[in-house]
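Thread amino acids onto this structure.
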């Protein structure tokens, strides 16, 4: 399976520590989703929406050293990663229902941003209350946990994970972008590259323009 970013998310947050852990406590925090030119036609009719889902890649979280049992931000007890919203995951995909303020060419002004600056944007979907809002009777271990702790620490950072994560044996997860999907100036006879490498080169090119 292959995937490539459709853009880049800009926010005030440069590191996990101090970043809101969900869009609700990030209410009022503004950011920008910059969509790469080749995907701009897909933004048609987006301006009529009040909220949108941003799907993105946790490029600075480290699953290799966290494994499948983690201590999430809201609890000091270990839980299976799929029962949490921890950023360190087998496929580190994040999602946020943000408020759409404005669409201007390839840039979306959004509010309620709990995402690190320069995070790879994977997809955009409409938030539809008739589809996305459910009443539930069970919420498991989350039942007695409220957002008293509203910001993250560095427990899932690539540079600081061993104190909070179990270290599994021989785990390596590399997302490969096909050579044909790379901009021509980035190909250089490579068969492929990681999403971090591709995204980093793309971001550097855009920031230099």
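Threaded sequence (209 positions):
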């Amino acid at each position: 399976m292959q995937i490539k970013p459709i853009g880049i998310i800009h926010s005030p947050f440069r590191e996990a520590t101090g970043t809101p852990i969900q869009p609700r406590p990030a209410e009022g925090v503004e950011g920008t989703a910059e969509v790469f030119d080749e995907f701009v036609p897909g933004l048609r009719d987006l301006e009529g929406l009040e909220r949108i889902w941003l799907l993105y890649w946790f490029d600075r979280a480290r699953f290799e050293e966290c494994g499948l049992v983690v201590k999430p931000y809201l609890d000091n007890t270990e839980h299976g990663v799929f029962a949490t919203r921890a950023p360190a995951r087998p496929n580190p995909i994040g999602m946020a229902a943000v408020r759409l303020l404005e669409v201007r060419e390839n840039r979306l002004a959004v509010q309620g941003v709990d995402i690190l600056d320069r995070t790879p944007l994977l997809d955009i979907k409409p938030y539809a209350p008739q589809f996305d809002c459910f009443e539930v009777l069970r919420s498991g271990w989350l039942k007695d946990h409220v957002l008293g702790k509203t910001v993250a620490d560095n427990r899932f950072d690539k540079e600081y994970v061993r104190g909070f994560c179990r270290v599994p044996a021989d785990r390596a997860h590399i997302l490969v972008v096909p050579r044909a999907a790379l901009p021509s100036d980035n190909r250089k006879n490579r068969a492929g590259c990681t999403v971090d490498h591709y995204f980093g080169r793309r971001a550097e090119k855009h920031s230099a323009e």
